[in-house]
Amino acid sequence: MMSGTLARETVPALDPPATSGRTSPWGTLKLFALALVVVVLAELIGNVAIPIGHGKIILLPLLWALLMGGALGLAAGRLPAPLRVTTPLQHQAAAILQPALLLFIAKLGLMVGGSLPKILGAGWALVFQEFGHFFGTMVFGLPVALLLGIKREAIGATFSVGREPSLAIIGERYGMASPEGRGVLAEYLTGTVFGAVFIALLAGLIASLGVFNPLALAMGAGVGSGSMMAAASGAIAAQQSPEVAKDVATFAAASNLITTTIGTYFTLFLSLPFTVWAYGVLEPILGRGRGRAEAAPAPAAASLPEEAPALGSSALLLAWLAAASFGLVGNALTYGTRPDGAVLLGAAIIVGVVVIGWSLYRLTARRLPAVVWTSLIGMALTYPGMPFSAEVAALTGKINFLALATPILAFAGLSIAKDVPAFRQLGWRIVVVSFMANAGTFLGAALIAQFWLHPPV
């Protein structure tokens, strides 16, 4: 997929983002310290189940980390200086988030490699469920948007889950000042602020009902966003046996890899044209006379996502080592695995996979996303028949994948507050539609996967 930088370079007629400022070394150290405290508290709280009718919502440590990190950012003005997460620190947390996410991707790649025969056995389920990811946003979101009186903003808000490549596609095709541009911006901001929380709660609730095969839900979790995939797959895996939980993680990773690899082209050539066509068909039926167009925010600079500061090589390595260390803390607190020599070696392998994947990403002029390279390296190391694959799988298997997800969501939470002012500018109707689109990509893929895993005849 295209990077956030490319997304903004291809969007015309935008004001340059306001500078986010630079953080001092002491500020960066404080950010890491706060993230560690958040991770420890989240892991100590553990899983909390909230019954809802016949189902339940599972609040995992990764969700507690996201919520606590967000609370620190939102309350920055009322906290003492040592606990204050200033706007520059929030941007620094956003810059750390993406590299840290590669650790989770590497861990999943290492899990996928040993399970490739089982994944390939899923056959058409894994192939066709991708249509649910790419069309589910429109199927679930567009009718609701039209019923709420939203006009062409609905196209931008429902043709995809609205990450950076979607901003680029809409910006180049329509311009960000257009209704379609305001719609995709609303979807982007909603996903940034609430996406991981929403998809985790939804996935956990659906999993608790026992209607779907957990592997179908796992494939639905591969929505193309690393943090959302981590949150959704974690909520599903938490309700399964250890063996099934491992399968959930591997199938979610495989689905997410497919979505990430082909997502830009699929949304550009299929999802967007189909959504435009569907809007033309459905708007006269559902939208006519049902209210004025949604007054989405004008594309002022304050409403546009800002570029996170770039990290140098030493800062990247520090981010990877810190996030891995925080993951080991959670691994010990929640899963009882002390960081002995074998565990530390397993963590070193995961970090090594990330370093190699990132290096290949840079050496190949970023033609493939870093998540793809990292996934492929991890899969190759544990693929049955590869030298030392069993040993690598055993060492890295000592680290639970959810333990690595908690630090990622902690940094995500610490970065959220900077986007809240822009989020507040959105009308409530377009936010509802964004939630429906996020639900659609998950449920659409899960429904198709369920059909292929359990055909009616």
From TrEMBL:
Keywords: Membrane, Transmembrane, Transmembrane helix. It comes from the Bacteria. InterPro entries: DUF3100. The keyword Transmembrane applies. The chain crosses the membrane at residues 31-50, 57-77, 89-110, 131-150, 188-209, 216-237, 257-282, 341-361, 368-386, 392-414, 426-453. Residues 1-21 are annotated as: Disordered. Pfam families: DUF3100. This is AbgT transporter. It comes from Methylobacterium nodulans (strain LMG 21967 / CNCM I-2342 / ORS 2060). The lineage of its organism: Bacteria, Pseudomonadati, Pseudomonadota, Alphaproteobacteria, Hyphomicrobiales.
